[in-house]
Amino acid sequence: MPASIGLRTFEVAPSTTGEELRSGQGEPRRTLLQLTDPHLFAKADGQLLGVTTRRSFEAVLEHACTHSPHADTLVLTGDLVHDESREGYRSLRRLLDRTGLPYYCIPGNHDSRPLMEDLLGPAALGPVAVHRLGNWNLVFLDSTEPGQDGGRIGGARLAALREALAASPSPAVIFLHQHPIPVQSDWMDRLSVADGDELIALCNRSPRVKALVCGHIHQEFEQRIDGYSVLGTPSTCVQFAPRRSEFAIDTRAPGYRELTLHQNGALETHVVRLDGYPERALRTARGY
């Protein structure tokens, strides 16, 4: 039998910068900003494939907060610090603290969970945590497997997720790092969630799930499955070319995802890219 995992359930503190927005029907709505795969380094000038990752993250974070002034929460879906350094996590915390927004982080395969917990404190979430925002549940799921680039949920986390979804009739968004379904890039799909089919089967049985939102793939992705969406989001630094059998760089700009959660359970989302951002990854790169 898999070991049990206790759930963390908590409510978001009201944003100090945002306010409750209302849809055309007079219903309140909540706005989330997802940033993913910043790959920061201890040094401010650290680069990944030719991109100075801290500089690009700062640009994306500033753009997101400026253009979504009523945002309620920031969500970071892994690969936060590429060199897994203490100074990298300290820098990340300083940048996020400046926004005045609540923020929540889950690990990726390029992260150290002990350092995240030590340096990001309660913002470092997992293995399964539920965050209440308005009438929505935000579920944070650690999909990483120690020592592996691909992910695995495992029986204990799946059981905890099942418990979380059954405990409340509220609509839910699930955040994880690795993608649970194929994205039609052979090399990247070898690094997906190994038991993603079990996660999808669980979500198929729960009408509460409105979206699964991941990082890891460094590209925009969307697929509808039985009433909910599986969403992938561009990195705040380097982009991977979609639908490739082998590793390939995409020279598109860095970006982020905005999600709007409506009182009636509807979800709207779109990706925003910083098209004017000057620094792009090296097209000649063959891996990282």
From TrEMBL:
<keyword id="KW-0479">Metal-binding</keyword>
<dbReference type="InterPro" id="IPR029052">
    <property type="entry name" value="Metallo-depent_PP-like"/>
</dbReference>
<keyword id="KW-0378">Hydrolase</keyword>
<feature type="domain" description="Calcineurin-like phosphoesterase">
    <location>
        <begin position="32"/>
        <end position="219"/>
    </location>
</feature>
<dbReference type="InterPro" id="IPR026575">
    <property type="entry name" value="GpdQ/CpdA-like"/>
</dbReference>
<dbReference type="Pfam" id="PF00149">
    <property type="entry name" value="Metallophos"/>
</dbReference>
<keyword id="KW-0408">Iron</keyword>
<dbReference type="GO" id="GO:0046872">
    <property type="term" value="F:metal ion binding"/>
</dbReference>
<protein>
    <submittedName>
        <fullName>Calcineurin phosphoesterase domain protein</fullName>
    </submittedName>
</protein>
<comment type="similarity">
    <text>Belongs to the cyclic nucleotide phosphodiesterase class-III family.</text>
</comment>
<dbReference type="GO" id="GO:0004112">
    <property type="term" value="F:cyclic-nucleotide phosphodiesterase activity"/>
</dbReference>
<dbReference type="InterPro" id="IPR050884">
    <property type="entry name" value="CNP_phosphodiesterase-III"/>
</dbReference>
<dbReference type="InterPro" id="IPR004843">
    <property type="entry name" value="Calcineurin-like_PHP"/>
</dbReference>
